[in-house]
Each structure stands twice: as structure tokens, then as C-alpha cells.
């Protein structure tokens, strides 16, 4: 067995978690749940009782709009209070993203948010993956896509007024996005993942979407 297969085998071993108590400590726009639990140890046996608070903000989906015909992408810019609280520049360059609502799937959310946040009509979606953002303290996952740009309605700003959104778009060649990442101008993790994925897969994705269009 090679080392990679050994590692995968180890990862596939299922541990056990015993939840002793779970309560909701706070419920507002977001929710915080308090857990007391034990879990199996790598050396065998069970851990001592561990108290933790988990931030519940729902699950999200995100998309990097990409025009395979021109090689252009769309990034959005908006104010983020979490970045401000972390003493970072709070106006972040990001991919389009939003919280998945009840009875909504990630694909539908992606199309809806692309229109709301960027005036962008999407066609085909290529799923990149589903990622835990801060698993040490939050249950949030983000399902990430690369989305085909069919049309971009250009306006000065986008977003929903009742949600306090003030968003503008930046259309650029994909290579410019890669350069922004290298220069440290992209500080949003899921955006960094999306740009790195596209840098690795732009040629193959362009080929697939172009061939599908020709054969349609």
C-alpha cells in the first residue's frame, strides 16, 4: 500500500461523538449553540468532556462568474463588518455568494445571487467543491461553483436595499484576478479557492464549454 492509500484509509475510519448536552445560547440574526461532548481518541478510548460554542449562520453557495469566450471573470466589492472588526480593509473583492434559504438548492441560490449582486445571468455551472470555512467554531459550509456568464447588466451598484447591500462589480481578465491573489489583494478565502481552481482548470473548462456550445 502506498502512502497516499494509507492516509485515505486512515481518514475513512469513523470516530464516535457523544453529545452530553446541547443548548442555544443566543438566537438573533445568527445563532450560537453551546455543546458539551466527548469523542474517540486516536490512541483509543474517549476524551474528557469538552465544552464548545458553535456559530450557526446557515449554509452558503458561491460562484465565480466566468466568460469562457473572452477569458473574463467578474468579482464583486462590498463592505464586510467582520473584516472591519479584524482591523482589515473592510471593502473586499469577492466572488458572488449568499446563504441558502429553506427549500433552495445551491445551484438555484447561485443563479439568484448572481443576478442580485452582479446583474449577471448565468448558464452552465461547474461545481468546484463544498468547503468548511471555520470548522473549529462554525458549522457553515460553502458550495462553490464556476458559472458561465451569459449576460451582464452593467450598473453603478447592485444589491438589495433592505439587506443593506451596496455592491459594485469588477470585470477583468482571469489572469488579472490571479495577479491580485498573488499580490495579496484577495483576502476572502473562498475567493482565493475559486481563483486558484480557475487558474488550474481554465484551459480544460474553456475547451469543454466551447465544444458543448458547438455541438448544441
UniProtKB/TrEMBL annotation:
**Ubl conjugation keyword on record:** no
List residues of the Nudix hydrolase domain: 56-194
- What cofactor is this protein dependent on? Mg(2+)
- The EC code for this enzyme is 3.6.1.13
GO term, biological process aspect, one: nucleoside phosphate metabolic process
Q: Which UniProt keywords apply?
A: Hydrolase, Magnesium, Metal-binding
InterPro entries, alphabetically?
A: NDP_pyrophosphatase (IPR004385), NUDIX_hydrolase-like_dom_sf (IPR015797), NUDIX_hydrolase_dom (IPR000086)
| GO cellular component annotations of the record | cytosol
Q: Name one GO molecular function term.
A: metal ion binding
Pfam families named in the record: NUDIX
Entry keyword annotation includes Hydrolase: yes
Where, in this chain's numbering, is Mg(2+) bound? 97, 113, 117, 165
Q: Which catalysed reactions does the entry list for this protein?
A: ADP-D-ribose + H2O = D-ribose 5-phosphate + AMP + 2 H(+)
According to its UniProt entry, what is the function of this protein?
Acts on ADP-mannose and ADP-glucose as well as ADP-ribose. Prevents glycogen biosynthesis. The reaction catalyzed by this enzyme is a limiting step of the gluconeogenic process.
What's the family?
Belongs to the Nudix hydrolase family. NudF subfamily.
Q: What is this protein called?
A: ADP-ribose pyrophosphatase
Q: Which organism is it from?
A: Kiloniella litopenaei
- Gene behind this protein: nudF
